[in-house]
Amino acid sequence: MRSIKKKLNMMTAKLLEVPQDVILDLPRLTMIGNMQLYIENHRGVLHFSSELLKLALGQGALEVRGENLVMRGIQTEEVFIEGKIHDIKYINS
């Protein structure tokens, strides 16, 4: 049932020319080198330290590991971090 809904949502996104991340409730990541990361469409910060950022997503979580991570901006569904980013991991639940 879940895969049918996902396929229907993808077809709707293409038909209406709406970005798939909006329809499928996926995060959008914009990364500049390994120094800046802008993440949209998250559901909240689960953990933050200078070495780890963990965000809740609509489905699963996102982990960002690095050094000297600093949160430069945070809004309801957006977060902007700077530092030396080593790893980004999507955890599907």
UniProtKB/TrEMBL annotation:
Which Pfam families does the entry mention? YabP
The record's section on Gene3D superfamilies has:
2.60.40.2000
- What superkingdom heads the lineage? Bacteria
NCBIfam families, A to Z = spore_yqfC
Name recorded for this polypeptide:
Sporulation protein YqfC
Organism, scientific name? Paenibacillus residui
